[in-house]
Automatic annotation (TrEMBL):
<feature type="transmembrane region" description="Helical">
    <location>
        <begin position="305"/>
        <end position="327"/>
    </location>
</feature>
<dbReference type="InterPro" id="IPR050833">
    <property type="entry name" value="Poly_Biosynth_Transport"/>
</dbReference>
<keyword id="KW-0812">Transmembrane</keyword>
<feature type="transmembrane region" description="Helical">
    <location>
        <begin position="131"/>
        <end position="149"/>
    </location>
</feature>
<feature type="transmembrane region" description="Helical">
    <location>
        <begin position="211"/>
        <end position="232"/>
    </location>
</feature>
<keyword id="KW-0472">Membrane</keyword>
<dbReference type="GO" id="GO:0005886">
    <property type="term" value="C:plasma membrane"/>
</dbReference>
<feature type="transmembrane region" description="Helical">
    <location>
        <begin position="161"/>
        <end position="181"/>
    </location>
</feature>
<feature type="transmembrane region" description="Helical">
    <location>
        <begin position="339"/>
        <end position="359"/>
    </location>
</feature>
<protein>
    <submittedName>
        <fullName>O-antigen/teichoic acid export membrane protein</fullName>
    </submittedName>
</protein>
<feature type="transmembrane region" description="Helical">
    <location>
        <begin position="238"/>
        <end position="261"/>
    </location>
</feature>
<feature type="transmembrane region" description="Helical">
    <location>
        <begin position="273"/>
        <end position="293"/>
    </location>
</feature>
<feature type="transmembrane region" description="Helical">
    <location>
        <begin position="7"/>
        <end position="30"/>
    </location>
</feature>
<keyword id="KW-1133">Transmembrane helix</keyword>
<feature type="transmembrane region" description="Helical">
    <location>
        <begin position="77"/>
        <end position="95"/>
    </location>
</feature>
<feature type="transmembrane region" description="Helical">
    <location>
        <begin position="42"/>
        <end position="65"/>
    </location>
</feature>
<feature type="transmembrane region" description="Helical">
    <location>
        <begin position="365"/>
        <end position="387"/>
    </location>
</feature>
Length: 399
């Protein structure tokens, strides 16, 4: 009963978080022009991608070290990865002309890196208490900051929207530093015989996970980069509507995946309950999306985004397929087989780029078809991996 309560609480928090995230998307759609909305999305995507390259997997390695009661001097690793994030951000600015807001870009990279490490590290708690807090805190802050800015100033230029994003990142980063302190205090209270982090274990774990996360981020970001390069900022602006709806399913499935992964960390198998929820959610989404897409887009995003409505169902289908692929990959992660997952990601990226290039004249329809082809590729490989490399030391969680 207690374990069910934790799951139900996490589901409730995630649903509320998804709703608030949608509200922030509505606000941005009204606050910015379609072109500026595309540029804003490119800024956020590039920040996230740089953070993944520099720090992805570091929080994961810290969590696994904690599982082995290795914790001393973790701050050294934390500060080192923040320094790496600054270096990668500066290199990105020097090599690519993607934003005029260079200082704000570097600052957002630092603050987002703190958030990412905290999220990964917080999964050591089987109750996911801090993880749930962060899941809800992010959209609450976004709605408060963007909503306040829109109510006070109405439509705004891109620069002001980036400044509001930076304010959000600063508040979130400060909160994460407090949460890291709480994680440390709780861990030291519960554990005895804590030792220093094994450098070989840490960096080997980080390197494998970092490679996997980079290619995972490439899979989730390359669409934005290619849309800007091949069909322009305007279509990326339209595509943000697809992202907003796709995120409703993706965020929920990612939450369930984190719940499943947290169970694996604690030797529990939660796959049946997770798959049941995903199946129910997917059936509902497929039934209602074609019926409600056009009136909802017109009502909440405005008529300037209405051309996206007929395409939306294809992005919903893709998010379900991609989510299942990610869920079935967790067994490989827990066993440290990131190299095989890296190969899977590489193949799917090649499929996506090839299909998008061939169908780029179809604009967003081409993007949707390319996505579905790549996600199906990953799902087939993930199913093979799931049965070939099962986690054998887990048990069904007691109700």
């Amino acid at each position: 009963m207690k374990n069910n309560r934790h799951l139900l609480t996490l589901i409730a928090v995630t649903i509320l978080s998804m709703g608030l995230t949608m509200v922030s998307s509505f606000i941005l759609a009204h606050m910015l022009s379609v072109d500026d909305r595309g540029a804003h999305q490119l800024f956020i995507t590039t920040v996230s991608y740089v953070v993944t390259i520099a720090t992805g997997g570091s929080g994961f390695a810290l969590a696994l070290s904690m599982r082995n009661k290795q914790y001393w001097h973790w701050r050294r690793y934390f500060v080192s990865f923040l320094a790496a994030a600054i270096i990668v951000a500066l290199i990105a600015i020097a090599l690519f002309d993607f934003t005029d807001f260079k200082f704000l870009f570097v600052l957002n990279v630092i603050l987002t890196a703190i958030l990412t490490i905290t999220l990964e590290k917080s999964k050591i708690d089987p109750r996911l208490k801090i993880y749930r807090t962060l899941t809800l805190q992010q959209p609450v802050l976004l709605v408060a900051i963007y909503g306040g800015g829109y109510l006070l100033f109405g439509e705004q230029p891109l620069e002001q929207a980036i400044q509001l994003l930076t304010l959000f990142s600063f508040i979130q980063g400060a909160a994460c530093l407090f949460y890291l302190y709480k994680i440390e205090k709780e861990f030291k209270r519960k554990q005895q015989n804590i030792t220093e982090i094994d450098r070989t274990f840490f960096f080997k774990t980080w390197f494998k996970q970092n490679l996997y996360q980079i290619f995972g981020a490439t899979t989730s970001s390359i669409d934005k980069f290619l849309i800007v390069a091949w069909i322009g900022h305007y279509y990326l602006g339209l595509y943000t509507v697809c992202i907003a709806f796709d995120a409703l399913l993706t965020k929920f499935i990612n939450m369930l995946t984190d719940y499943y992964y947290s169970g694996l960390l604690n030797n529990y198998n939660r796959i049946k309950s997770v798959l049941t929820i995903i199946a129910m959610m997917g059936i509902g989404a497929v039934i209602f999306t074609p019926l409600l897409a056009e009136p909802i887009i017109k009502l909440f995003f405005s008529a300037k985004y209405i051309e996206v409505a007929p395409i939306l169902i294809w992005f919903i289908l893709n998010s379900i397929i991609a989510g299942l692929s990610w869920l079935l990959s967790q067994n490989m992660l827990i066993q440290g087989k990131q190299v095989l997952l890296f190969t899977r990601q590489l193949v799917s990226i090649a499929v996506f780029i090839s299909l998008f290039y061939l169908l780029k004249d179809q604009h967003l329809y081409g993007v949707a078809c390319a996505f579905i082809g790549a996600s199906l590729t990953r799902l087939v490989i993930s199913i093979i991996y799931y049965f070939k490399y099962p986690v054998t030391n887990s048990k069904v969680e007691q109700k």
